[in-house]
């Protein structure tokens, strides 16, 4: 192989690897430890806006999402309550409105969650379930000053109750589980800071080679190599393609387990016997004299 061809192959492999890393997206493991939190830029959820993510947990309680106007009137909280998602929010100091999903999410399975803001209305989508609630407020726009918090809130906010619009939020236990594919209005927000969070699991701990796709399966990063032509834990082993019985009989049997090789050889022998019998039968029939009736 010439130098230019080798260089071309290496460039293609590098391109596939880069694409793999780009498509992975952020993965965050929330340990549920005391003092855990992840901080993101402010989500301006005043009017028409949405946030979405995928989650997996076996916990029944925990704080998933929180933001507010830093101690005045407006806030939104998304909690894990008895294995279901509970969303509560208020605008202009109105009586908080609450919506509770019917879908249990503490089954160690992945669930898609979307929070959609539309002035006085907020919609909670869990997989295929859609519920919405309206707050009875004299003002329709939600005011937001704080950062967007996931999994918990920093200790400095817990210690100063006046900075939290929802005072009860400081008593919520941190979320324990996984969150991936976080999007705010279709874009992936950048983590400003965090504590007790294991992030970028796929990228840091288990890079999939040759275009393999990394995902979290049973709390472990796993590579899907099905579309790559490679196999193995990290898609680094070239697949062995079997071209047919003749190909195996011509010298590739060492790649096939003995019991499989024996089965294939036996099948091939039976096939050869059947074909031979048919050939002999045809030969005999062709030699018979033609009799006109």
TrEMBL record:
<feature type="domain" description="Laminin G">
    <location>
        <begin position="27"/>
        <end position="208"/>
    </location>
</feature>
<protein>
    <submittedName>
        <fullName>Neurexin-1a isoform X10</fullName>
    </submittedName>
</protein>
<keyword id="KW-0245">EGF-like domain</keyword>
<feature type="domain" description="EGF-like">
    <location>
        <begin position="198"/>
        <end position="236"/>
    </location>
</feature>
<dbReference type="InterPro" id="IPR001791">
    <property type="entry name" value="Laminin_G"/>
</dbReference>
<dbReference type="Pfam" id="PF02210">
    <property type="entry name" value="Laminin_G_2"/>
</dbReference>
<keyword id="KW-0732">Signal</keyword>
<dbReference type="InterPro" id="IPR013320">
    <property type="entry name" value="ConA-like_dom_sf"/>
</dbReference>
<dbReference type="InterPro" id="IPR050372">
    <property type="entry name" value="Neurexin-related_CASP"/>
</dbReference>
<feature type="signal peptide">
    <location>
        <begin position="1"/>
        <end position="27"/>
    </location>
</feature>
<keyword id="KW-1015">Disulfide bond</keyword>
<dbReference type="InterPro" id="IPR000742">
    <property type="entry name" value="EGF"/>
</dbReference>
<dbReference type="GO" id="GO:0016020">
    <property type="term" value="C:membrane"/>
</dbReference>
